């Protein structure tokens, strides 16, 4: 028997929402996915009209969906934002050079200006140089700090007020776990904030704070978005990987573990 969509009760249900376990059609999935992010933006006053906003773009699924959603919602709801793409080239051969090609295609597809800042240009070294020196050890801890700073410096060059990143609910849950395991109480609170300000006072926000990673993947898949799916070659030993595996195990037992909230 054909199962009808649990929202419109008209179309055939073709997917089960990971966030709510509701079986729905593709059209209703697009609608709820986009509307929930719109509400996150509005309820948290993320932007004001006229803001110049850089979308941190890596070419991966999260930032590609973020670019697509920010452009769609900005036009649909007339936010009045001046959007651009901002990418960091860490200098990782066989990974970032390929993913930046995806960002360049996204720039054409979404008709947004693009600025790329590189570690080579900012610091006079690349991650390839660093890994050659120190080997495959704690690379993300080091790279992450410089990546954050590079985004800030790129934002200053672009003259933007605000950076949006594609951090989703799963990323935040992983960070919470990592901070608990490290006993880092100060970061534990900060890591769940939807808006933060770096040293440069440029606001950073996470419109996907309440969005499940699986739904981002589904959205990218059904919309046939152009994204790069290879993992960074220096990430396999990252501490985050252990938190991710643990979280996936918890999620298999209780799907609401990621946000810790029961949905109807
Ligand atoms: Fe840098 Fe780690 Fe990200 Fe690779 S995965 S770009 S090493 S922070």
From TrEMBL:
Single annotated GO MF: transferase activity
Q: Which domain of life is it from?
A: Eukaryota
Record-linked Pfam families: ATP_bind_3 (PF01171)
Keyword list (alphabetical) reads: Cytoplasm, RNA-binding, Transferase, tRNA processing, tRNA-binding
Give the InterPro entries listed for this entry. Answer: CTU1-like_ATP-bd (IPR056369), Rossmann-like_a/b/a_fold (IPR014729), TilS/TtcA_N (IPR011063), tRNA_thiolation_TtcA_Ctu1 (IPR035107), UPF0021_CS (IPR020554)
Annotated GO CC locations? cytosolic tRNA wobble base thiouridylase complex; mitochondrion
Annotated GO biological process? tRNA wobble position uridine thiolation
What does the record give as the function of this protein?
Plays a central role in 2-thiolation of mcm(5)S(2)U at tRNA wobble positions of tRNA(Lys), tRNA(Glu) and tRNA(Gln). Directly binds tRNAs and probably acts by catalyzing adenylation of tRNAs, an intermediate required for 2-thiolation. It is unclear whether it acts as a sulfurtransferase that transfers sulfur from thiocarboxylated URM1 onto the uridine of tRNAs at wobble position.
Protein name listed in UniProt: Uncharacterized protein
Q: Which organism is it from?
A: Jimgerdemannia flammicorona
């Amino acid at each position: 028997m054909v199962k009808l969509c649990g929202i419109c009760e008209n179309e055939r249900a073709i997917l089960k929402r990971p966030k709510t376990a509701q079986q729905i059609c593709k059209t209703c999935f697009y609608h709820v996915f986009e509307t929930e992010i719109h509400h996150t933006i509005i309820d948290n006053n993320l932007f004001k009209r006229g803001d110049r906003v850089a979308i941190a773009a890596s070419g991966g699924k999260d930032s590609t969906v973020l670019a697509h959603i920010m452009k769609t919602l900005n036009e649909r709801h007339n936010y009045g934002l001046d959007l651009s793409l901002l990418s960091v080239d860490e200098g990782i051969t066989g990974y970032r050079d390929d993913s930046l090609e995806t960002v360049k295609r996204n720039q054409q597809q979404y008709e947004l200006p693009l600025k790329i800042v590189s570690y080579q240009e900012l610091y006079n070294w690349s991650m390839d140089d660093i890994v050659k020196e120190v080997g495959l050890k704690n690379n993300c801890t080091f790279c992450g700090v410089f990546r954050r700073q590079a985004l800030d410096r790129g934002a200053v060059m672009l003259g933007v007020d605000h950076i949006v990143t594609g951090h989703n609910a799963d990323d935040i849950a992983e960070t919470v776990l990592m901070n608990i395991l490290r006993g880092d109480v100060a970061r534990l609170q900060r890591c769940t904030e939807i808006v933060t300000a770096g040293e440069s006072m440029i606001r950073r926000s996470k419109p996907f704070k309440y969005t499940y990673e699986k739904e981002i993947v589904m959205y990218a898949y059904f919309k046939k978005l152009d994204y790069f799916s290879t993992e960074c070659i220096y990430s396999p030993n990252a501490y985050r990987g252990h938190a991710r595996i643990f979280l996936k195990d918890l999620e298999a037992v209780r799907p609401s573990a990621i946000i810790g909230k029961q949905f109807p």
